[in-house]
Amino acid sequence: MADEVTRRNTLKTAGIGALGIAAAGMTGAWGGEASPGGAGTQAPYEQAPLPYRYDALEPVLSEEILKIHHGRHHAAYVAGLNDTLERLKRARAEDDYAEIRALSRDLAFHGSGHILHALYWDSMTPGGTEGPTGELAEMVEAGFGSVEACKAQFAAATKAVEANGWGVLAFEPVGRRLVILQIENHQNLTIWGVAPLLVCDAWEHAYYLQYKNRRGDYVDAFMEIIDWEGARQRCLAAMR
């Protein structure tokens, strides 16, 4: 059952572009399908359940951390995203854009927070996988020289994120290559158009309860539970 849930979630995340740009349409738990009945009737965003049990990533990440992270923090971004969309709808109806700067910022922050967290859960799998295979392995070798070099840069970038943010392995479609990025907060320092394949949450809420201020130890442990097959599927979808 867990394998089937993971497969469905992988298909959902495949093709999702830079922090919300869809290469293959955002539906279901990601974005909600557009409801019939005219403009302004799209369904709200929904949060998908984890693709594994809350205790499935132990000892790397505890059941308590996952329950708080998924059930409170991620859920708050989904709620914030839907609230922002409602406020924007109200602004359009009233032709009042006095708060458009704050609303635009909230849309990027909460929307990126939701999408990155959804990718984060799918970036991990109980026990991890050995490493990238197929086309992803070839791109890793071409872009970084070796899998180990790619993993070392990804881990170093994630550990060195200033304050709160993310480490991201992404496909960049213009140069058709892989890049490793540091994202500050959820929405800053990206390259437009990239499709994130693998992400690691470097916000303190992702690890502090278990690792305290030892972010490096958390990132090293995360590297052991990466779902490289899910990353490969997302890479294939992004390359189409």
| H/E series | HHHHHEEEHHH
Strand content: 5-15%
CATH architecture of the largest domain: Orthogonal Bundle
The CATH homologous superfamily of the largest domain: Fe,Mn superoxide dismutase (SOD) domain
The level 1 CATH classification of the largest domain is Mainly Alpha
Apparent shape = globular
Strand order of the largest sheet: 2-1-3
What structural class do helix, strand and pairing data support?
mainly alpha
Characteristics of this structure?
mainly alpha; Helix Hairpins; 8 helices
Outline the structure in words.
Residues 1-37 have low confidence and may be disordered. By secondary structure, the protein is mainly alpha-helical. It has eight helices and three strands. The longest helix has 32 residues, at 63-94. It has helices at residues 2-13, 63-94, 100-122, 134-144, 147-159, 208-211, 215-222, 228-239, and strands at 165-172, 177-184, 195-201. α2 (63-94) packs antiparallel against α3 and α4 (134-144) crosses α8. The protein has a three-stranded antiparallel beta sheet. The protein starts with a helix and ends with a helix. The chain has two domains: 2-122, Helix Hairpins (Orthogonal Bundle); 134-239, Iron/manganese superoxide dismutase, C-terminal domain (minor pseudopilin epsh fold, 3-Layer(bab) Sandwich). The chain is globular and about 55 Å long. β1 (165-172) and β2 form a beta hairpin.
